[in-house]
Write a structure and sequence with these properties.
The chain is an alpha+beta fold. It is built from 13 helices and 5 strands. The chain has helices spanning 5-30, 33-52, 60-85, 96-105, 113-135, 145-166, 171-174, 183-219, 230-241, 260-267, 269-286, 310-331, 354-370; strands at 250-258, 292-297, 300-305, 339-347, 376-379. The chain is elongated and about 95 Å long.
């Protein structure tokens, strides 16, 4: 098959239509607004490419300027999709670009009009596409592979249109818009086919990575309290434990609810769930920056503090214990008071695993239960030179 301009336009329309359907199907399963906007952008590309075929039949306005205008709309939808992906609002000033293009349509026809239209349209597409690529710059965290690929494709695509806009100074030499002839036309059509393929692939990869991240986050959360679960605690704790040193000791607080069974027996398991949620909310409210909190199961919770001497650990435990006791007493009446017992293991050495500190905190928790509950017991670090 000879890849003449007519054939390239047909391929472009077909690939854009396929990308529309593919991204729309992804949107049905993910429900991310960015996928819907990108799918709409490819749909507009498909319509514009189909209308561009009419230019060889003499419909110059529809086949050239209207179809090129749709190309501007498509890239605006791509930009809106990137903004939705980044959770960013675009300034309303971007709507002025549409006004610029509409104003160009009403300018009087003349020998310079085609050159000006091609230059303005190419500049508009370049500005929109480059802005979309710059929105994907790394910020707080590194970009995913899909997002990095999308950024590269958008920037390369925008730079191509910037070069295309510059080429209009030699319009008569390089371009014959009505008859599909000229170096710029040929190169632009080939680049368009490649851009559609690469954009669709990277857009899908971008949202797929985010979906996988979301699924991993859900798998790491306790479904009732939305704190980390046991698995997430064991994955994340080693990084905090390695930070421990005599200058920056850490603390592990293990806690459970005193007389929790009475709440379930007297008020039902829904009441017990509400009490667990209350405790998890209080834990979040006292959790310092950089700390971890997790629900081990049942009514057992863990807080892992970094850079926390004994006084800081006691302050966190005391605040949490008093706040929980007040709320529990005000919410549920039980024969024995519902309170919180805490055992804490303090450490200043990074060479022991989480299970070791959990065991020592569990022994301290047992001591707090044995001494009357509603209290906090500390297990201090071993002196230098002595085993744990």
């Amino acid at each position: 098959m000879v890849l003449d301009p007519f054939t390239l336009l047909v391929i472009t329309a077909a690939m854009a239509a396929a990308s529309t359907l593919y991204l729309a199907s992804e949107w049905r399963s993910v429900r991310e607004r960015s996928l819907l906007l990108w799918s709409a952008g490819f749909a507009v590309v498909a319509v514009g490419s189909a209308l561009a075929l009419l230019r060889s039949s003499g419909f110059v306005f529809v086949g050239i300027w209207f179809s090129n205008g749709l190309l501007i709309v498509a890239h605006a939808l791509f930009l809106a999709g990137v903004a939705a992906f980044r959770r960013t609002r675009l300034p309303r000033a971007w709507w002025l670009l549409a006004a610029v293009w509409l104003a160009m349509l009403w300018l009087p026809d003349g020998p310079w009009w085609s050159k000006a239209m091609l230059g303005v349209q190419s500049m508009l597409i370049a500005a929109i596409t480059l802005r979309a690529g710059l929105l994907l710059r790394p910020q707080d965290a590194a970009l995913s592979v899909g997002a990095a690929q999308l950024r590269f494709v958008l920037l390369a695509h925008g730079l191509f249109y910037l070069a295309k806009a510059a080429s209009v100074v030699e319009l008569d030499t390089f371009v014959n818009l009505a008859s599909f002839r000229g170096v710029v036309i040929q190169v632009s059509l080939v680049e368009g086919v490649m851009a559609i393929m690469l954009l669709a692939m990277s857009m899908t990869g971008t949202e797929r990575h985010r979906r996988e991240e979301r699924m991993a986050q859900i798998a790491a959360l306790d479904p009732l309290t939305a704190l980390d679960n046991r698995r997430a605690l064991y994955l994340r704790a080693p990084a905090l434990l390695r930070q421990a040193s005599p200058a920056r000791p850490g603390a592990l607080l293990l806690m459970d609810i005193d007389n929790f069974k009475q709440v379930n027996d007297l008020h039902g398991h829904d009441a017990g769930d509400r009490l667990l949620i209350t405790l998890s909310d209080l834990i979040r409210s006292v959790l310092p920056s950089g700390a971890l909190a997790a629900r081990l199961g049942g009514d057992e919770f863990v807080i892992l503090l970094c850079d926390a001497p004994a006084s800081a650990a006691q302050a966190v435990g005391q605040e949490l214990r008093e706040a929980f006791s007040r709320q529990a007493r005000a919410t549920f009446a039980t024969p024995d008071p519902v309170s919180l017992s805490i055992g804490a293991s303090l450490f200043d050495r990074p060479d022991a695993e989480l299970s070791h500190w959990l065991k020592r905190a569990d022994e301290a928790l047992y001591a707090s239960k044995r001494k009357g509950r509603d209290r906090m017991e500390l297990d201090l670090p071993a002196p230098p030179g002595r085993p744990y």
